[in-house]
Design goal:
This protein has 570 residues and is of the alpha/beta class. The protein is built from 22 helices and 19 strands.
Length: 570
């Protein structure tokens, strides 16, 4: 599990990971994504297709996918390029916001939604939920669950017969038997959305086809997606204010980074160079993406290859281990506390200067410090090739969080869910987007110099709820800090120029259930190695054992899948 999961944020101020929406700008969520998905599920239902696994692509997918109709309601200030998000830098004129849902589609029914939530969820009758429900015409009843332990709750609910009308499932929670449970427990939305049927819901029709492709499970259109930029979302954030003051140069190779880390670190002065840089190492050494299991596989020199079988993988682990061994990494990360506590305060205090994190935290860190620490400036380093050349980067999937509708739901409930999704997928600059992301003017936000600023009530109530049902195309919009919008989109565009798509990019692959647990302890071993508790030779032995335990058979399965489905690589 990467510390991302998710997409660049379209709302000002989470986890990492994960939307790349407002809930992703909080570092507490970022930690959740890193830690999420580890406990295994006992049982949560299955189907024959789920046990055999597979994917849906080509002609079979084309018959199922919704038609794409680009939205012309608003025009971004920075168009998408090289797989980037689109960007909005201008201030919102609340008085002239566009309407993207002219007719209320909800029929007044009740819909229950179970979703991960980071923080303290508001009460059901809060002003935000009440106003949003009134706009949509649906009585949405939230069953928010702690995002840090969501996988455990998810497994229990899917194993029961009492499943809410809608269940949100992030990609990082799709472990063990979850994919087969999705196929067996949730509704086929194709009869409502495939082809031109989606045009009844214009904002859903404007969701990119790549994101819908990720919503195909067991040959059916089952998920409502949260689209994401396919550019890697882990950015080496750094304290540019301190770099400028001390005359530090941004590194352009693995060797330069190591030399800089030595220069920065002074343990007696309580200053270290960085946090755990493992995920940046994977990117700068060109390691095949590991965000989801299918992305770990691609064809290398004519052979189906898993990421951990490449020399770059071991080289990245060794480089990260040397950072730890030399004492350049903040002690909290050495002890593993970074996965349980929020390192933001120590980053803000200058105890460490470089922190790989989800791109949403580029804005998030700056926004938090902007008022209390005016001299603070966080910026993102361009990824470098480990040898000083151009990087070789691998694309993330174009959607990573999905909402599913209970298979037992009536047509009226499904229609009401789609009415909710059509509002929450509204683009930036619309009344619907404003309600979803900011709530009610005067109650949840006020305008300061044309920029919406959340009140305490807004911060407490308007957070990671409605955005989870469906989202517009990947968007970065921070009118309060427009230079950060430009910086983040520009970073994605530059990195996108070096980004490749692996063989199964964009496909929703369900592995055969007998092999789904093969690499469950791989990330723990990675962390033990970089912290010096295990050796590179332990990983080499692990890889050998993995091959004999089923890795080679899984390789054959992926090869056949590729032969049958065709490659997304380009």
């Amino acid at each position: 599990m990467t510390p991302n999961a998710a997409s660049a944020s379209s709302a000002p101020s989470r986890r990492s990971s994960p939307s790349r929406r407002s809930f992703l700008a909080s570092t507490a969520v970022a930690a959740a994504a890193v830690a999420g998905g580890t406990p295994l599920l006992a049982a949560c239902g299955s189907s024959d297709s789920g046990s055999r696994g597979g994917t849906t692509s080509g002609k079979n997918a084309k018959k199922i996918l919704p038609a794409y109709v680009a939205s012309d309601v608003v025009t971004p200030d920075i168009p998408s390029r090289n797989g980037s998000s689109m960007g909005f830098t201008g201030k919102l004129d609340v008085a002239t916001l566009k309407t993207s849902v002219p007719k209320k589609l909800g029929k007044g029914g009740k819909v229950t939604v179970m979703s991960p939530f980071w923080g303290s969820p508001p009460k059901q009758n809060c002003a935000y939920y009440t106003a949003a429900n009134a706009m949509i015409g649906v009585d949405v009843q939230w069953q928010n669950q702690d995002g840090n332990t969501y996988d455990q709750k998810l497994g229990a609910v899917l194993a029961s017969s009492d499943i809410p009308d809608v269940v949100v499932i992030p990609g990082w929670n799709m472990t063990a038997k979850i994919p087969s449970a999705i196929i067996g427990k949730f509704a086929d939305l194709g009869p409502y959305l495939s082809g031109d049927k989606v045009k009844e819901y214009p904002n859903l029709a404007a969701i990119p086809t790549d994101a819908w492709q990720r919503s195909l499970f067991g040959g059916k259109l089952m998920g409502l997606p949260m689209p994401a930029s396919y550019v890697q979302n882990i950015v080496p954030l750094y304290r540019q204010d301190i770099f400028d003051k001390q005359g530090y140069e941004v590194p352009r190779s693995a060797a330069e980074f190591m030399a800089l880390a030595k220069e920065i670190t002074n343990a007696r002065a309580k200053r270290w160079a960085c946090g755990d840089m493992k995920w940046t190492a994977f990117n700068t050494f060109g390691v095949i993406s590991g965000g989801e299991k299918s992305l770990s596989w691609t064809v290398v020199d004519g052979r189906m290859t898993h990421r951990m079988e490449t020399p770059e993988y071991l080289e990245a682990l060794e480089w990260t281990r040397k950072l730890f061994a030399a004492g350049y990494v903040h002690p909290d990360f050495k002890l593993g506390k970074s996965q349980a506590t929020d390192p933001s305060a120590k980053f803000a205090a200058g105890e460490f200067l470089i922190w790989n994190n989800d791109i949403s935290n580029w804005y998030g860190q700056q926004a938090v410090q902007a008022t209390q620490n005016p001299g603070f400036k966080v910026w993102g380093m361009d990824l470098w090739g480990h040898d000083g050349g151009n990087p070789v980067l691998w694309a993330a999937n174009p959607a990573g969080i999905f909402a599913f509708v209970n298979k037992k739901a009536s047509e009226s409930v499904i229609r009401d869910v789609l009415a909710v999704a059509d509002v929450t997928a509204a683009p930036y600059g619309t009344k619907e987007w404003m309600m979803t992301n900011y709530g009610v003017e005067g109650t949840h936000y006020t305008l300061r110099n044309g920029v919406p600023v959340k009140t305490d009530k807004g911060n407490n109530e308007v957070a990671n709820a409605f955005v989870m049902v469906a989202s517009p195309a990947a968007t970065i919009a921070h009118p309060d800090l427009p230079d950060y919008t430009k910086g983040m989109v520009g970073w994605q565009q530059r990195m996108g120029a070096f980004t490749r798509k692996s063989s199964f990019w964009g496909l929703q692959v369900v592995e055969p259930s007998r092999w789904t647990n093969l690499t469950n302890d791989m990330e723990q071993l990675e962390d033990d190695i970089v912290r010096g508790h295990k050796k590179i030779s332990d990983m080499q032995q692990y890889i050998s054992d993995w091959r004999s335990r089923g890795g080679d058979k899984l390789r054959d399965w992926y090869k056949k899948l590729l032969d049958d489905s065709g490659s997304a690589a380009s």
